Each structure stands twice: as structure tokens, then as C-alpha cells.
Amino acid sequence: MATFGCQMNAHDSERIKGMLEELGLGEAPTADEADVVVFNTCTIREKPDTKLAAYLGEAAARKREDPDRVIAVGGCYAEAQRERIFELYPAVDVAFGPGSITHLGEWLGAGGVGVARGRFGLDERGFAAELPMHRERSFQAWVQVSMGCNSVCSYCIVPAVRGREQSRRPGEVVAEVTRLATQGVKEITLLGQNVNSWGRDLLPEIRTEFGELLRACDAVEGIERIRFTSPHPKDFRDPVIAAMAECDAVCEQVHLPLQSGSSRVLKAMRRTYTRERYLALVDKMRAAIPDLAIGTDIIVGFPGETEDDFVQTLEVVEEVRYDSAFTFVYSPRAGTEAAAMEEQVPHEVKIERMERLVETVQTIARERNHGRVGRVEEVLVEGVSRTDPALLRGRTRRNTTVNFVGTAAAGELVDVLVEEATSMTLRGTQTVPSHALVTLDACAS
After folding, report:
1. Looking at residue 118, what is its pLDDT?
2. CB within 10 Å: which end of the chain, N or C, has fewer?
């Protein structure tokens, strides 16, 4: 199975894997050995589409050698293309939108028998929470709180492929978090296209807001860390900031998409906030949570973006001093307002601006991380380092990757003294807890 795109897709893929395992389909060691190949797709930018085309070409070649092999394409690209996907890629057997995951088992059948040609379902969407889940790590879990989006950003195709916003009931969310805690999960990430507006579409008798949901999850015994993504700045209200500051389990980290530092471009993007409003929100959040780490999304080369607009984006990056940033070159998406706009920025200009932006982001992130050197950070151990098998790897509450010398097991929370830093990672040594030192001193005496 191959997964493209956002955290919501990662969550959906865990559900798909769990469902396929219930059908008796175990994960194949390699793609060549798979009886059923599933692609969970993204279409928010052009790059995932291009990558998918290459993957499907390879899968089609394997299918010619073994006609019984099943190729399934799910996710946002499948929903955007619908029946056209079978014209573009004749080797595809079944396609399904992100709202139709709950039906995939029926369409595939045991071992891929009785494959449906295509099913999509914005009109019959359902939360996948009741499906079995194959989690990458037993101590971390995604928890979907909503699906869809009511925003009308001029560049974004998400509302068209995931539908209008629909919130899960608060009792269902808390029940899932409680169940996960009993299974040993220590860290949860609450997911939605716009988590801040969660709850506003619920019936009056159960309607609440996202800050209260954070508090309810914080009260679940066994949950040590709570994260959420993605919020929209226009809906980030004071009760959420207060919950972040007051709830022990809610991490000192937030992903706050900027997209552009120019109010003129933000208006063209239909983001419904200005540069000034965004910066005021950042100031309010940092006043309430002084050690807050902020990540962001930035689009370079939106139609009509001038050099002055881009310089304003650099100015915001330097003022906010982001700990991390996902940076994207604008690519038009069919059916969006921005795709038809005049003054499309030349590709070479986009690339030159992107290089300047990345340099600025990395310089600031490196400085921010160097500021952690000498501190002791709480780290949730995720496993062995990807770059050095002699080291362990984990994440701080501020969501920074740490490679460190230690003896802890995956899933443990340990303290690490930070000794080195780059723009993306920290490096250090696991410290001995103070109570252990007392015990050792007592034995020595």
C-alpha cells in the first residue's frame, strides 16, 4: 500500500490496512508479491499526481504479468477524477473516494474476488472510526474529529473531494480516545480539515467547541500527549488557546498555516484574515504559551504574487520565527478559482522565490533549535534512529525529532539532555531520573 499526502490520508490508510487484514489479506513484503495493491492518493498539488502516475505505470506492468492482481485507487485524486480514472488508467480495478472507505471491503471481497469497477461517495460519507485499525506504532494514534471543509480558499480542491464539514459527536471522540488509552496509546493527534470549527454543525443539545473537546481528551487517564491538525487561523478562538495553556497533555506546539504574508494575496486566496490579524493571533498564543513551537504552510508563486508580496511573506517568517514550515510552489488545480486567474507567475520566478524562502526558514529553524541546546527535553521514544542504528529516535512535546544515546524502549517517555542541533533535529543523551540517583546513593551508603 502506498500513501500520499496529509495526516488525514495517513489515518485513512491505517483504517484501510486494518480492514484488509480482516479480509485475510496480510501485508506483502514487496509490491511485486502483492495480490491487492492500494494507492491512497492526494491531489492538492500537481506533484502527487505525477508521482501516482509513475506508481500506476509500474503496477500496470506487474498486472500484465499477473492479470489476477487487483489495483485499487482511493483518496482525493480518485474522488476528483471519478469514472475518468478508468479511462486514464485502464489497469485500475476499483476506485473509491475518501468518504467511501467503509465500503471498500465489500467491493474488494475476500482476496480481491468480485471487484467493483468504481464507487465514490460524497453523498454517503461515513466516519471510519468503527473500522479496524493497523497503527504504525502502538503508542500513537490519529483520531478523526471531523471530515470535509466549509472554507472556500481559491486554490484548494479539498472541499470538492472531501465535501462539506461534518463533525463527529463529542461523546464518540472521547469514547475512542478512552479506548485507545486502554490499549496503551500515549499520544493522540486530533484530525480535521479545520479542527477549530469542529462542533459548529452539531445539534444544539450537543453542540460545543474545540477547546472543550481538548479539555475532555485531556481528562482521559493514560493520554500523555495531545496534538491537533490542521487549524485555520480565522477560527482560532480564545477558548482553544486557554485549553492549550491549561491542559497538561496538550503539547506546546501548533501548526498554523500562513500561506502568504501579503494581505492582498491572502484576500485573493480567500483566506479571510489579514497579515495583521495573523500576527496578532501569534502574539496572543505566545503570550499564553511562552514556549510554543509554531509550524506553518506557505505557498510561493500564487497568481498575481509580486516581488513585494513575496518580500512581505519573508518578513512574516522572520517576525514569527517558525520552528518548521512546509513550503510549496503554487500549482493550479482544475476547477478551482485560482486556476483561472490571470497573472500566473512564471515557473522560474516561483523556483527562485522558493529557494530564498527555504533558506530563510532553515536559518531561523536552526537558530530556534540551537536555543534548545543545554535543555532537558521530554522525549517520546519512537524507535531506532533512521540515520544511526546506535542511536534512538523520538519527539519532544514541541514536535522536534531527537536522536539520542539511550536505552529506552519505543513508547517510553524519557528525559534527554540536548547537546547539538540542526535546522530539523536535535541530538543528545538520555538522562538518569533524579529518583534513580537517590536510589543509587542510598545503595552506595
Report:
1. 55
2. C
Per DSSP, the three-state class of 220 is: coil
Cell numbers found for residue 272: 479571510
Which residue, 381, 279, 281, is CA-closest to 320? 279
User: Could you tell me the three cell numbers for 24?
Assistant: 485475510
- Omega prior to 331 cis, within 30 of 0: no
Query: Exposed e or buried b for every residue in 224-242, given b needs 16+ CB within 10 A?
Result: bbbbbbbbbbbbbeeebbe
Taking each helix axis from N to C terminus, what angle separates 210-218 and 170-182, rounded to the nearest 10 degrees? 30
Which has the closest alpha carbon to 251: 213, 223, 271?
A: 223
Output the pLDDT for position 133. Answer: 74
Give the Cα separation of 210 and 221 in Å (integer): 19
**Closest C-alpha among 273, 49, 42 to residue 153:** 273
Distances (CA, A) of 181 to 8, 177, 218, 249: 20, 6, 11, 13
pLDDT for 131 equals 67
Nearest to 299 by CA among 327, 332, 336, 257: 327
Instruction: Supply the pLDDT for residue 110.
Output: 41
Q: Which of 293, 444, 326 is nearest to 45 (CA)?
A: 326
> What is the C-alpha to C-alpha distance for residues 395 and 386, in angstroms, rounded to an integer?
13
Neighbours of 291 (CB within 10 A): 10
CA 174 to CA 216: how far, in whole Å?
Answer: 7
Report the chain (445 residues): mean pLDDT per 10 consecutive residues: 85 85 82 87 83 91 89 87 86 83 70 48 60 82 92 91 90 96 97 93 88 98 96 96 98 98 98 98 98 98 98 98 97 91 95 98 98 98 95 98 97 98 97 60 48
| Cell numbers representing residue 152 in the block | 472556500
CB-based burial of residue 31 (10 Å sphere; 0-12 exposed, 13-18 middle, 19+ buried)?
A: middle
* CA–CA separation, 9 and 11 (whole Å): 5
Q: How many degrees, rounded to 5, is the angle at CA 79 between CA 78 and CA 80?
A: 90
For residue 112, what pLDDT is reported? 42
